Amino acid sequence: MTYNTVIALDAMGGDNAPGEIVKGAVEAINARKDIKIHFFGDKEKIEAELSKYQYDADQTEITHTTEEISCDEAPAMAIKKKKDSSLVVGLKSVKAGECDAFISAGSSGAVLVGGQVLVGKCKGVKRAPLAPLVPTEKGISLLIDCGANVDARPEHLVQFAQMGSIYMENVVGIKKPKVAIVNIGAEEAKGNALVKETYPLLKECKNINFVGSIEARDIPKGDVDVIVTEAFVGNVILKLEEGLASTLIGVVKKGMMSSLRGKIGGLLVKPSLKKTLKTFDASEHGGAPLLGLRGLVVKIHGSSTAKETKNAILQCVSFKEAKINEKIMEHLTPETEQADA
Amino acid sequence: MTYNTVIALDAMGGDNAPGEIVKGAVEAINARKDIKIHFFGDKEKIEAELSKYQYDADQTEITHTTEEISCDEAPAMAIKKKKDSSLVVGLKSVKAGECDAFISAGSSGAVLVGGQVLVGKCKGVKRAPLAPLVPTEKGISLLIDCGANVDARPEHLVQFAQMGSIYMENVVGIKKPKVAIVNIGAEEAKGNALVKETYPLLKECKNINFVGSIEARDIPKGDVDVIVTEAFVGNVILKLEEGLASTLIGVVKKGMMSSLRGKIGGLLVKPSLKKTLKTFDASEHGGAPLLGLRGLVVKIHGSSTAKETKNAILQCVSFKEAKINEKIMEHLTPETEQADA
Q1: Tag placement on chain A: N or C end, fewer CB within 10 Å?
Q2: Chain B residues with CB inside 8 Å of A241's CB?
């Protein structure tokens, strides 16, 4: 049987591998009969995990690998040396066209570097941005780029805006997604050299719905769908949101526990708080795609559980079904060139 | 009588001017007999506010001004045109040496531009950074630079680190303050071009206690005292902290109100929550100084009340007493040059 989407899954990456990763994969294949999961990793360990569940074995395949890349290793070096790692062999299966997408909860650096080096960029794509969905008051926004490609140029940011729009429209289902550039003031004249040069290019760009600048304080409100910035600033935004949310929640909990009255109240508010904070839980929204590659590469959080793994798999299916890469090449490649994917 | 510190106060700037500004000033002079407040603004309005309180009139002086700069005006143009505004006349009194410090809750841009243009930089200072104290889990950190001088060079960041250290040691009272540079990873090899060039310079710098890189997710933890970054990133960090904290608190409140159980619990946790969130209230920590000028210029929040005004005044007194400017010039000026302040 041929499958709609074949996902290469790094069974060895992340804090909860292979247990939660395999569990998430089984949940995904039990939800969709038209997809196949190709596991990369220690065959014996993967089979031991799989034996715990009921599923259609035809929907799985395992390629045994003998090495693992840890988060402490220098990414470029690790990819070069550990040729039989789950990450390298898995990425190569996408390059070879055997799999449509690759998902890993392993080293971010290795996924970013490996994606670009081993899978390669779509024709016309200058840089492959990492574009996580960040939780907001109203839902989710795409923050593009949070990757390892710092010191971007204006033309890169324009492509990020285009790729981000295509993703939000076709995978997340938002019509004419609003695009804004991160800035330190609302006016066009504000900003650093990069933003000042990029702003008019975004304004001219016909295939996006550019709404202007966004100040960092307005990002959590969720009024904008695609938030464009270069990778250094994007990384700062992503990490600060994570850090501040966890610090504030810790501080609130500690505050409640400081008095008997607070403790009782804390027990009462717990269920509603839990529900609310779920809105701000990144694992609800799948992983961060590395856009503009010849196959989809998705980085999920190192602490990912079965739920995030499953969500990321289903996200990849939507990506494939929506023909995102074809759309990206259509929008970014000059008409005279032939897309060669 | 001569006073230890004379503060020029913009009585017309901010959402609560002149009422809360004048009230804060009266609280400050009633707390310290050795300081004087020089008000700039509409004399009649200031006198009307002052008449509500008991205080030693010798500790006050009013210079009547007829114009005000609003937050909507382009800063450089406003400063040039509105020569009789409270902001321009007040800043000039610092330049003339009549006042030691200037405080305003008015337009950030006008304070930043006016401070540099009208007061002028200390000899040896390349750029005057805006350095707010940001609340953390453990207390406060100095975030330097959050100003309007984007696209900084490595030598600017080194001076920011030095000025920030002097401030934290002498005004806030932290011995050998820990200095870190905002980065997207902990290793020296990480970062954009600016950070990679600056890192070794900070490492070599003998008069600071440089501890390496800090990732944005660790900023709220408060392990570091001086957080060095260029203004664009600093502004993003400052605004995102503001925005995310207010969004999360709003979401938590809404969550509690969504059920009866939550409502009752909410009432019980309110006092402890309020106390805890006070730790994260920037107004507790005075204003943001613009460092490296020939007099201190402090920007306080547009929504400042009497409390923040008073705290900012007392912060200026510490600044003057600690001879920060002399120390900055000592540390930054080559030995052969004479400090000329």
Answers
A1: N
A2: 240, 244
Q: Is A251 on the interface with B (CB under 8 A)?
A: yes
Placement of tokens 């016909």 in the chain: A206
Q: Which residues pair with A296 in a beta bridge?
A: A101
Pick from A193, A220, A256: CB nearest B151: A193
Quick one: tokens of B52?
């509500």
The chain-wide mean pLDDT, for chain A, equals 88
Cβ–Cβ below 8 Å for B248 and A220: yes
3-state secondary structure of B327: helix
ipTM reported for the complex, 2 dp: 0.85
Residues paired with residue B130 on neighbouring β-strands, in sequence order: B290
Q: What is the pTM of this model?
A: 0.87
Which residue type is seen at B42?
A: D
Rounded to whole angstroms, the Cα distance separating B165 from B122 reads: 17
**Which residue, among A187, A192, A213, A246, would best test binding to B if mutated, counting the most B CBs under 10 Å from its CB?**
A192
User: CA neighbours within 13 Å on the CB side: how many for A244?
Assistant: 25
- What confidence tens digit (pLDDT) does each residue in A12-49 have? 999 999 999 999 999 999 999 999 999 999 999 999 99
Does the distance separating the beta carbons of B231 and A236 come in below 8 Å?
no
Peptide bond before residue A129 is cis, with ω within 30 degrees of 0: no
Q: Is residue B336 packed enough to be buried (19+ CB in 10 Å), middle (13-18) or exposed (0-12)?
A: exposed
Q: State how far residue A241 is from chain B, nearest Cα, in angstroms.
A: 7
Q: A245–B248: do the CB atoms touch at under 8 Å? A: yes
Q: Which of B150, B236, B247 sits opposite A236 (nearest CB)?
A: B236
A245 touches chain B (CB under 8 A): yes
Interface of A with B in 253-292 (CB under 8 A): 254-256, 258-259, 261-262, 264-273, 275-277, 279-280
Does the beta carbon of B77 lie under 8 angstroms from any beta carbon of chain A? no
Instruction: Summarize the confidence of residues A308-315 as an average pLDDT.
Output: 92
Bridge partners (DSSP) of residue B288 are B299
User: Do the beta carbons of residue A230 and residue A239 sit within 8 Å?
Assistant: no
pLDDT at A334 over 50: no
Instruction: Find residues 161-180 of chain B whose CB sits inside 8 Å of chain A.
Output: none
Rounded Cα distance between B82 and B76, Å, is: 10
Give me the tens of pLDDT residue by residue for chain B, a chain 341 residues long.
688 899 999 999 999 999 999 999 999 999 999 999 999 999 999 999 999 999 999 999 999 999 999 888 888 899 999 999 999 999 999 999 999 999 999 998 899 999 999 999 888 899 999 999 888 888 899 999 998 788 899 999 999 999 999 999 988 889 999 999 999 977 777 889 999 999 999 999 989 999 999 999 999 999 999 999 999 999 999 999 888 887 877 777 777 777 787 788 777 777 777 766 666 665 556 688 999 998 899 999 888 899 999 999 998 998 888 888 888 888 774 433 333 33
B207 in contact with A at a CB cutoff of 8 Å? no
The bridge status of strand A296-299 relative to strand A288-290 is antiparallel
Partner-chain contact B252 A276, CB within 8 Å: yes
B55 shares contact with chain A (CB less than 8 Å): no
Could you give the 3-state DSSP secondary structure of residue B146?
Answer: coil
Phi and psi at B69, nearest 5°, equal -100, 125
Q: How many CB atoms lie within 10 A of CB A264?
A: 14
Q: Other C-beta atoms within 10 Å of A335: how many?
A: 6
